[in-house]
């Protein structure tokens, strides 16, 4: 049997997965799973083994041809856009149905339905922060204002449901069998909800943490440690850009007082610091062939099944190819015959918290502008597998839902905090991507972005006409300086948002003189931009490394851009380590012991490249973590969450003010510590950890082994369906931002010449079935910085075809 060896491994893996799933809910009997006709045995296949030449699909208007290349990438050829969307829904469901449904269940707060009460707290948080409410508002917006988009979503939905209707129990994705439930009908609501889920994944706030920090340090010190504009800013839109609009006025109130809180609440999850995304485009004047080249690599959590699903979608009007998001229509990051585009997260504070005072325990009225106004009550019924449903009452104010209250994570404080968030509003992000798929020039690109609200993104663009562009797009609140940095008083109208920045005032650039555009989650603009911008997560290192290289490079090729995406140079280490070593050796009487000397030797020989087979990054991370932890230890507030200064600010203070009072530990009475004291202490600790690490992992411990990059299954308990110990370099704040659990979820490089050339890769495979050879077959290529040819194909010219399926209308 061709896959007999793999089948044995698959059986063992599945049994392990079942055992590991005990903590994630009830597990079906092994008898069901071992059923030779319907159980997991039937999932040990690759898609080409079950290929069908023709399939009947009710609702199609004309035949649709789906040609799969050797990597299981479908090339879908349809006569109309409606048929194309229906076919996309059907084909995506064939390979990613469980993933699509699981992610939307997670977004809706419905995981308890399939795993039991273990997920109840998670589900309550999802409901309370209003993702479902935001999707309802989005769907209502489509019905009232964008019905054409909704019609295409219905077509996609119909395609998904036609696949579910035809799905045989034996071919049901294995996760359904393990967790013992069945797929349910797809709806337009779920597609809208999926895009809200992406907004949730890519937004964060530190209002609670900043509030606690302000309580400890005072506002002036917080502003010093967290300046609104980064100290070394190489912005998304070139710093000397001139703005051609008259800004809307917004004024800070003469007297505004933030509530003086110190709180214990658990903060909501936020994007991991130092891990983000990159995109750029270079003009033809800087490339070898004289054509623009665009590159994009969004960095997200590394999961299986993969976040992205590669497709080519073709009608007589356009052909587009790239990374699709299972459950959403069209291509999210990709290109057609005229243009290419890509996205990175435009970190911006679009989520604010308000302290609410209710009139009484009924919470039917709350205080606003010193008057009592009516609240709304939304009862969330959460079904729980193996138990009765949980009824959660969520109060909605005019700001948004009250997430934290006496019934949910009060920590004895009984505080009520409402969340205001742009994702709660009606919008049509889906149309942005549909329009980009068919775009032909820069004007079409700008028109497509007008639909876009959240999550805010830096949209890079290039065209075969020679244009390159960047726009920071989202629906951004119009705020006075400092507004929203801390928890705000819900009674005071002075804390209300002042409307929104007009889309045409969002930062953008076209064909800048420097010959490139780029973004890497850094601060968006120079100081001349007239609107207040704040976020605590602006990136400090990748953007400067990318821009520095792009300024230097000429005669750029696609291979050059691929190499830059995979660049392992650690700019943070290059700026910090020489200073650390120099100050460490200031005390000439200091004698290093053998263990310290061994660590010192590794650090002094390192060239700052975090390649997988070197020791330097390991040694540096041990020392830096010990140093930074020691410097800011005095800010530890126990159970009260705070935000700590990042690597850039810590390095800046180490260099510029080594005797600053911030390095003095209050706990050591009579002593005045300086940065040198912290470096000495932390180096000794790091050398001890270095020796312990070598004793555990061997003398040849290297970065890839220490980092242990893992592509994890969406259900973390199913460890056997993931991949650990991937041998690859990079790291946080590095262009190749591959850390333990995050990294480039998709790499794409496109040259916009007369014939569009493209290469792409992502860490996984096209199939969602762990039994398929297409489940994770891209991982090794991705880890080594390789790509597959990703060019556009005409139906009659395709080579290396795996199989072809024709979807036919029902007679």
The count of strands amounts to: 30
List the uncertain runs. Answer: 1-31
Query: Main beta sheet, described?
Result: 11 strands, mixed
- How is the largest sheet built, in terms of strand order? 1-30-2-3-8-9-10-11-19-20-22
The coarse silhouette is globular
Task: Give the percentage of residues in beta strands.
Answer: 15-25%
**At the third CATH level, what is the topology name of the domain at 4-201 and 306-334?**
Penicillin Amidohydrolase, domain 1
Distance linking N and C termini: 39 Å
Arithmetic mean pLDDT: 92
Identify the CATH homologous superfamily of the domain at 4-201 and 306-334.
Penicillin Amidohydrolase, domain 1
* Rg value: 27 Å
What share of residues is helical?
25-40%
* CATH architectural type of the domain at 4-201 and 306-334: Orthogonal Bundle
| Computed structural class | alpha+beta
CATH hierarchy, class of the domain at 4-201 and 306-334: Mainly Alpha
> How many helix segments?
22
């Amino acid at each position: 049997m061709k896959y007999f060896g793999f089948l044995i491994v698959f059986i063992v893996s599945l049994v392990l997965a079942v055992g590991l799933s005990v903590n994630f809910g009830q597990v079906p009997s092994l008898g069901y799973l071992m059923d030779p006709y319907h159980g997991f045995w039937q999932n040990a296949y690759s898609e080409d083994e079950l290929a069908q030449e023709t399939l009947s699909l009710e609702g199609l208007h004309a035949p649709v041809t789906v040609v799969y290349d050797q990597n299981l990438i479908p090339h879908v050829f349809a006569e109309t856009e409606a048929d194309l969307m229906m076919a996309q829904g059907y084909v995506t469901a064939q390979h990613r149905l469980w993933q699509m449904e699981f992610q939307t269940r997670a977004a809706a707060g419905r995981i308890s339905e399939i795993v039991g009460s273990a997920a109840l707290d998670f589900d309550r948080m999802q409901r309370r922060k209003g993702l479902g409410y935001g999707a309802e508002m989005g769907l209502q917006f489509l019905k009232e204002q964008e019905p054409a988009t909704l019609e295409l979503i219905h077509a996609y939905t119909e395609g998904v449901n036609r696949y579910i209707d035809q799905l045989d129990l034996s071919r049901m994705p294995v996760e359904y069998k393990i967790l013992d439930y069945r797929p349910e009908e797809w709806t337009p609501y779920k597609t809208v909800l999926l895009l809200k889920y992406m907004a949730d994944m890519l937004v964060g706030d530190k209002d609670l943490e900043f509030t606690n920090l302000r309580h400890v340090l005072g506002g002036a010190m917080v502003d010093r440690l967290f300046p609104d504009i980064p100290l070394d800013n190489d912005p998304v839109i070139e710093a000397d850009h001139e703005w051609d609009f008259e800004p809307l006025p917004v004024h800070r109130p003469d007297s505004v007082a933030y509530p003086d809180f110190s709180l214990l609440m658990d903060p909501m999850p936020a994007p991991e610091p130092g891990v983000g995304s990159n995109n750029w485009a270079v003009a033809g004047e800087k490339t070898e062939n004289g054509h623009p080249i665009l590159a994009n690599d969004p960095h997200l959590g590394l999961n299986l099944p993969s976040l992205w699903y590669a497709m080519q979608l073709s009608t007589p009007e356009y052909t587009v190819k790239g990374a699709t998001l299972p459950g959403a229509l069209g291509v999210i990051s990709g290109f057609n015959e005229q243009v290419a585009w890509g996205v990175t997260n435009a970190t911006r504070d679009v989520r604010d918290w308000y302290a609410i005072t209710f009139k009484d325990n009924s919470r039917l009225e709350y205080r606003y502008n010193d008057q009592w106004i009516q609240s709304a009550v939304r009862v969330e019924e959460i079904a729980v597998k193996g138990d009765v449903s949980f009824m959660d009452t969520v109060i909605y104010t005019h700001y948004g839902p009250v997430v934290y209250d006496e019934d949910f994570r009060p920590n004895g404080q009984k505080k009520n905090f409402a969340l205001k968030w742009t994702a709660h509003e009606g919008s049509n992000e889906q149309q942005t991507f549909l329009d980009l798929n068919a775009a032909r020039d820069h004007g079409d690109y700008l028109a497509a972005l007008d639909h876009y609200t959240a999550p805010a993104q830096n949209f890079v663009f290039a065209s075969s006409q020679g244009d390159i562009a960047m726009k920071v797009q989202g629906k951004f609140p119009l705020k006075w300086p400092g507004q929203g940095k801390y928890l705000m008083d819900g009674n005071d109208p002075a804390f209300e948002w002042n409307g929104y920045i007009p889309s045409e005032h969002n930062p953008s650039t076209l064909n800048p003189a420097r010959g490139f555009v780029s973004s890497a989650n850094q601060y968006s603009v120079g100081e001349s931009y007239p609107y207040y911008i704040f976020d605590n997560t602006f990136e400090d290192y990748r953007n400067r490394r990318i821009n520095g290289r792009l300024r230097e490079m000429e005669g750029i090729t696609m291979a050059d851009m691929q190499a830059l995406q995979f660049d392992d140079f650690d700019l943070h280490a290059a700026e910090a380590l020489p200073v650390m070593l120099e100050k460490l050796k200031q005390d000439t009487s200091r004698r290093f012991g053998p263990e310290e000397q061994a660590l010192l030797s590794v650090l002094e020989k390192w060239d700052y490249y975090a390649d997988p087979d070197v020791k330097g990054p390991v040694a540096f991370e041990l020392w830096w973590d010990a140093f930074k932890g020691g410097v800011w230890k005095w800010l530890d507030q126990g159970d009260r969450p705070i935000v700590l200064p990042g690597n850039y600010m810590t390095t800046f203070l180490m260099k510029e003010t080594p005797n600053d009072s911030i390095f003095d530990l209050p706990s050591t009475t009579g002593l005045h510590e300086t940065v040198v004291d912290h470096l000495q202490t932390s180096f000794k600790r790091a050398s001890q950890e270095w020796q312990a690490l070598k004793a555990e992992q061997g003398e040849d411990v290297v970065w890839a082994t220490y980092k242990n990059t893992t592509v994890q299954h969406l259900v973390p308990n199913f460890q056997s369906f993931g991949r650990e110990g991937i041998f690859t370099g990079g790291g946080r704040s590095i262009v190749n931002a591959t850390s333990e659990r995050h990294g480039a979820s998709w790499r794409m490089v496109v040259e916009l010449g007369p014939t569009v050339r493209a290469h792409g890769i992502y860490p996984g495979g096209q199939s969602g079935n762990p039994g398929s050879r297409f489940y994770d077959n891209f991982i090794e290529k991705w880890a080594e910085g390789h790509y597959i040819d990703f060019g556009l194909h005409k139906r009659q010219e395709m080579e290396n075809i795996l199989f072809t399926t024709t979807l036919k209308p029902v007679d």
